[in-house]
Amino acid sequence: MASARPFARLRAGPRSSPVELWCEDALTGLPRRLPRGSVDVVVTSPPYNRRVAYRSYSDDRPRAEYLAWVRDLGAAVAGVLSDRGSFFLNVGGSPSDPWFPYDVAREVGRTFVLQNVIHWVKSIAIDRRAAGRAAGLDRDLALGHYKPLVSERYLHGALEYIFQFSRRGDVPLDRLAIGVPYQDKSNVARWRSGGSDRRCRGNTWFLPYPTIQRARRDRPHPATFPPELPEWCFRLHGVSRVRRAVDPFVGIGASAVAAAGLGIPFTGFEVDRGYLATTVQRLRSEGVARDPRPVPVAPGRARPTRTAARPSSRSRGDSSS
């Protein structure tokens, strides 16, 4: 039976915005906890069904069952998303299964319109010659982190996808909120939109992971994404137009940290109490929590289980494999 109280309720960020965390399956929690049309941005990354060693569920489902669950997720998000809301869905594949992200996107596309496809680049090599003299490089660069792949057939994966869905594909975006300066400053005067010396970043985002010294301490979750990823999604949608943001798979809280830092009211769902406890600790340690009195719920340690039917809201949330 679902609890009537959230796992934690904080006042966080520069505007003391509410952060509410529910230990609950998002597919049932979204319609239960949030009114229809009350959410303006959803940023999330569900489990990828790639046998990741989560603590509280099995990440290994028959492909058809998993995709049916993704379709249900899209319907649950549609029930709470506002008319001009954005649904940013982060999905990664593997070199041996390149169709997986697109299969997931097609299922969500049964309910939404795919408005933008963003390439999250986690590792990149930049040749000094290609960068040009203006870059001032004295050597070739290899930036970011990747998982080495020993194969005679495949290249190692250096990117994931962020699919931006909306109801009709007509949501206006604040493109310059995550814009970049012009490399060639003559464009500032040449283009009418160049007066602020900012241009659209485009659909390629380079966001490497921070260096990890000790995995248990620095990344107590097997699949995480950096807070900058949800932050850029919030900014791109337009912070001033966000009444509430949601992450159905909040994990250890990157999206919660990003929302709190921007002063956006936030609701997160997660089935693992330990991950939620880490989220609360993270909000405090990163200096955004203002109310030291969350709803007192003992975090406990979830016992690994295998879910019987469809996957529940297994936290990939703060995530990227």
Task: From the structure above, extract its key features.
single chain, 321 residues, alpha/beta, Rossmann fold, 9-stranded mixed beta sheet, two-stranded antiparallel ribbon, 11 strands, globular
Report on the architecture of this protein.
There is one protein chain. With 321 residues, the chain is an alpha/beta fold. The protein has a domain at 8-116 and 162-178 and 219-285: 3-Layer(aba) Sandwich (Rossmann fold). Helix content is 25%, strand content 20%. It contains 9 helices and 11 strands. The protein has helices at residues 26-33, 63-80, 100-108, 128-131, 186-190, 215-218, 228-237, 254-262, 273-285; strands spanning 8-12, 17-23, 39-44, 81-91, 113-121, 123-126, 141-144, 159-166, 204-206, 245-247, 266-270. The strands form 2 sheets. The chain has a 9-stranded mixed sheet with strand order 1-2-11-10-3-4-8-5-9, with helices on both faces. A two-stranded antiparallel ribbon has the order 6-7. Strand 1 (8-12) and strand 2 (17-23) form a beta hairpin. The longest helix is centred in the first third of the chain and has 18 residues, at 63-80. The protein starts with 7 loop residues before the first strand and ends in a 36-residue tail after the last helix. The relative contact order is 0.24.
Number of strands: 11
Distance between the ends: 31 Å
- Main β-sheet, spatial strand arrangement: 1-2-11-10-3-4-8-5-9
Average predicted confidence as pLDDT: 83
Taking the sheet with the most strands, its summary is:
9 strands, mixed
Structural class: alpha/beta
Give the DSSP E fraction (strand runs of 2 or more residues).
15-25%
Instruction: Kindly provide the name of the CATH class of the domain at 8-116 and 162-178 and 219-285.
Output: Alpha Beta
Question: Helix and strand succession?
Answer: EEHEHEHEEHEEHEHHEHEH
- Number of alpha- plus pi-helical segments: 9
Question: How much is the radius of gyration in Å?
Answer: 20 Å
Share of residues in helices: 10-25%
